[in-house]
Every structure is written in C-alpha cells, then in structure tokens.
Description:
It is a single chain. The chain is about 60% helix and about 5% strand. The chain contains 2 helices and 2 strands, in the order αββα. The radius of gyration is 20 Å and the shape is elongated. The chain is mainly alpha-helical. A two-stranded antiparallel sheet has the order 1-2.
Amino acid sequence: MGVGLAVINFIWWFGFAYGLGNERPEEYTYIFGFPAWFFYSCIFGFVLFTLFVIVMVKLFFVEVPFDDGEGDAE
C-alpha cells in the first residue's frame, strides 16, 4: 500500500510539473504567487499525500506487539 501511494504521488507530481509546466513562462497562471504547475505538484500534492498517509495509517495499519508475553508469566 505504501509503495502504491508513493507511485501515485510520483505520477501526480510528474503530471502536474511537466503537464502544466510545459508552457511558456508568459502563459503561466499563478496561485498564491506560485506558478500553477509548482503549486499543484509541490505544495498541494505534498499536503494531499500527507493527508492520504495519515488516513492510511489510521485505517489500515495495526499495532504489532513485539514482546512474546513470556515476561508476564514470572
């Protein structure tokens, strides 16, 4: 699941960075002073995938005990 999320993150970053950033700089649109390709690929993508990781850890990961329980018997 983690590798899949990393691959999707790379596709997201690559698509916005090279898809929107493939224009001439005079034709860029800006969001909060950043070119749209940079905002969506680096800033918004980071926030979005950080939230995805938090949701993934909360929903799908379980705590694994590392002790074997023998210490409690004595």
